[in-house]
């Protein structure tokens, strides 16, 4: 069997040149899974036989002159929150109804099949695309192929680690708080979150109705663009979807002369981050400049407020979906999942509406910022993949090192690409954000960067690492009695029944939650903002005073 190409683009070219067959690509993918998946936890279920039959059909069609495009005959993994006809959808949860979807596939899956993709299996996720791994539940722990003692990121864990480990050429994922970009960053591959509405999200289990993006992971920016071209466009089943198909020229101009790139640093280099992030980021900026781009310092508008808006929106919308099951089966949920969803009970309906008003103001400000620059770059995270021992520590501190949620809330397209490594050999990543429906500009810059670097072509060595024991928890401080009483009342009103220890933990953070939400009411521009959730193509708000 010939050596398998690294990228989707290379594999598609090799197929058409007769250098490899789809069956050979699929057999190589299966062999990679048989070799490494027990250690990596990429798959929840594999469809080896069905994939080989699909590959045989693709080879027959290509031989007869039927060419469905770049994905024809290409192995692709699917995050296990999207139904496929080959097997059940689990959402990596004991709670999830295995009959969800009634055996039917959503529009994105239909479009992938129409494009001739070979579906290899369902990939691991965080439970319901939220939270952290839970070793006490009977599901694979998704590990990073660069160091097996570290996490593969989330929530699109298996879709990213599977691409990095050569088990498929592209993975379908979702991004509500960074699920595509964080996982791509930690695994040293590329991930694209499209503009909200460009890809229909119907047929995918919801987390945050106004935040969810279906997107794609591949080794290169071009790989991601090829998948987007196959799945973009309006579908009547998703009222948020937009009639905005996507296509790229066969080859983009790698000269970025005349492109103004905004550089966002504020808040992206916290003191407890890895200092290698700054070094890699400066080197990446030098590559953009060498390609002809003009670099301009910018600040992300309302950054702190948007992070609060994101938290209020995701937890409120998520709790709205999960509240009946959380009432009945609290402890069947992963610990981190129930922790994050239950925070939706700590805010009011008025808080949610105010959050959407501030969100509209921030979207408008970002749209106006893009009047002055063509793109914005910043780190995807201020660290490499955390170890499993680190995941048992301070989740709030970990969250402050991930810089993805802002863009989910704003809704613009963002491409994450590898930009280097930490001193311990873990991948680092940068994000390229574009104006609404400006995916082509982000991909062009990503391709220009990847034409000058080879970070995305590095292959992980499956370092076993060391499974350090998590630190023994110390005695938690006592919660303020008033906060404790307030939290108990709010959970009782939501008919949720956390343990006493969980209530204490929620109460310890309640003052911070309220302070963040109260700050949203202090944004004067929000007084005249319409809180409608639908993302507008230009990101702008209409103000009768102007």
SSE blueprint:
Blueprint: H1 8-16, H2 22-40, E1 43-46, H3 48-63, E2 75-79, H4 107-114, E3 118-123, E4 143-144, E5 147-151, H5 157-164, E6 170-175, H6 179-187, E7 190-193, E8 213-218, H7 221-231, E9 260-264, H8 276-290, E10 294-298, H9 303-328, H10 335-342, H11 349-369, E11 375-379, H12 395-399, H13 405-410, E12 414-421, E13 427-433, H14 439-452, H15 481-493, H16 500-520
Parallel strand pairs: 2-3, 2-6, 9-10, 9-11
Antiparallel strand pairs: 1-3, 4-5, 6-8, 7-8, 7-12, 11-13, 12-13
Helix pairs in contact: 2-3, 5-6, 7-14, 9-10, 9-11, 9-16, 15-16
Fold and architecture overview:
38% of the residues lie in helices and 12% in strands. It has 546 residues and is of the alpha/beta class. It has a single domain, classed as Amidase signature (AS) enzymes (Alpha-Beta Complex), CATH 3.90.1300.10. The protein has an eleven-stranded mixed beta sheet with strand order 1-3-2-6-8-7-12-13-11-9-10, with helices on both faces. A two-stranded antiparallel ribbon has the order 4-5. Helix 9 runs antiparallel to helix 16. The longest helix has 26 residues.
Q: Please tally the β strands and state the result.
A: 13
Order of helices and strands: HHEHEHEEEHEHEEHEHEHHHEHHEEHHH
Mean pLDDT: 94
**Count of discrete domains:** 1
Computed CA radius of gyration, to the nearest angstrom:
22 Å
Which residue ranges are poorly predicted, with pLDDT under 50 across at least 5 consecutive positions? none
Percent range for helical residues?
25-40%
Largest sheet: 11 strands, mixed
CATH topology: Amidase signature (AS) enzymes
Overall shape: it is globular
Q: Give the second-level CATH assignment, the architecture.
A: Alpha-Beta Complex
Under CATH, the homologous superfamily reads Amidase signature (AS) domain
């Amino acid at each position: 069997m010939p050596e398998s190409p690294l990228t989707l683009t290379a594999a598609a070219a090799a197929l058409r040149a007769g250098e490899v067959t789809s069956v050979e690509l699929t057999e190589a993918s299966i062999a990679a899974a048989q070799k490494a998946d027990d250690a990596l936890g990429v798959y929840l279920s594999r469809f080896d036989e069905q994939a080989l039959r699909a590959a045989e059909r693709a080879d027959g069609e290509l031989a007869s002159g039927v060419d469905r495009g770049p994905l024809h005959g290409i192995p692709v993994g699917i995050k296990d929150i999207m139904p496929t006809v080959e097997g059940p959808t689990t959402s990596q949860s004991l709670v999830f109804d295995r009959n969800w979807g009634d055996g039917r596939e959503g529009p994105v899956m239909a479009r992938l099949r129409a494009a001739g993709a070979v579906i290899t299996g369902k990939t691991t996720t965080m439970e319901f695309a939220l939270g952290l791994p839970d070793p006490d539940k009977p599901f694979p722990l998704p590990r990073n192929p660069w160091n097996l003692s570290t996490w593969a990121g989330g929530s699109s864990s298996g879709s990213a680690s599977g691409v990095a480990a050569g088990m498929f050429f592209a993975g379908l994922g979702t991004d509500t708080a960074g699920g595509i970009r964080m996982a791509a960053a930690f695994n040293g591959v590329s991930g694209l979150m499209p503009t909200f509405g460009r890809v229909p999200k119907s047929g995918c289990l919801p987390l945050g109705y106004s935040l969810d993006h279906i997107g794609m992971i591949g080794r290169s920016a071009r790989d991601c663009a090829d998948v987007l071209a196959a799945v973009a466009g309006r579908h009547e089943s998703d009222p948020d979807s937009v009639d905005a198909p996507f296509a790229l020229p066969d080859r983009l101009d790698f000269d970025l002369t005349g492109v103004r790139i905004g550089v966002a640093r504020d808040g992206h280099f916290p003191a407890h981050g890895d200092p290698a992030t700054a070094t890699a980021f400066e080197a990446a900026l030098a590559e953009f400049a060498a390609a002809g781009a003009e670099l301009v310092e910018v600040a992300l508008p309302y950054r702190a407020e948007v992070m609060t808006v994101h938290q209020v929106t995701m937890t409120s919308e998520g709790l709205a979906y999960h509240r009946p099951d959380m009432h009945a089966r609290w402890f069947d949920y992963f610990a981190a999942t129930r922790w994050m969803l239950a925070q939706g009970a700590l805010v009011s309906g008025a808080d949610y509406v105010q959050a959407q008003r501030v969100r509209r103001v921030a979207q408008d400000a970002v749209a106006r910022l893009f009047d002055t620059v063509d793109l914005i770059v910043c780190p995807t995270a201020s660290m490499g993949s955390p170890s499993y021992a680190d995941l048992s520590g301070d989740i709030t501190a970990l969250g402050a090192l991930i810089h993805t949620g802002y863009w989910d809330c704003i809704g613009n397209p963002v491409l994450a690409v590898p930009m280097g490594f930490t001193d311990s050999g873990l991948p680092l990543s940068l994000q390229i954000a574009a104006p609404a429906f400006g995916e082509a500009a982000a991909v062009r810059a990503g391709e220009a960067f990847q034409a000058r670097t080879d970070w995305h072509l590095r292959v992980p060595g499956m370092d076993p690492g060391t499974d350090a024991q998590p630190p023994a928890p110390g005695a938690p401080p006592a919660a303020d009695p008033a906060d404790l009483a307030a939290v108990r009342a709010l959970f009782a009103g939501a008919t949720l029944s956390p343990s006493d220890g969980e209530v204490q933990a929620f109460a310890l953070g309640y003052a911070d939650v309220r302070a963040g939400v109260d700050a949203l009411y202090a944004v004067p521009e929000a007084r005249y903002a319409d809180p409608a959730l639908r993302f507008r193509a230009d990101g702008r708000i209409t103000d009768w005073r102007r």
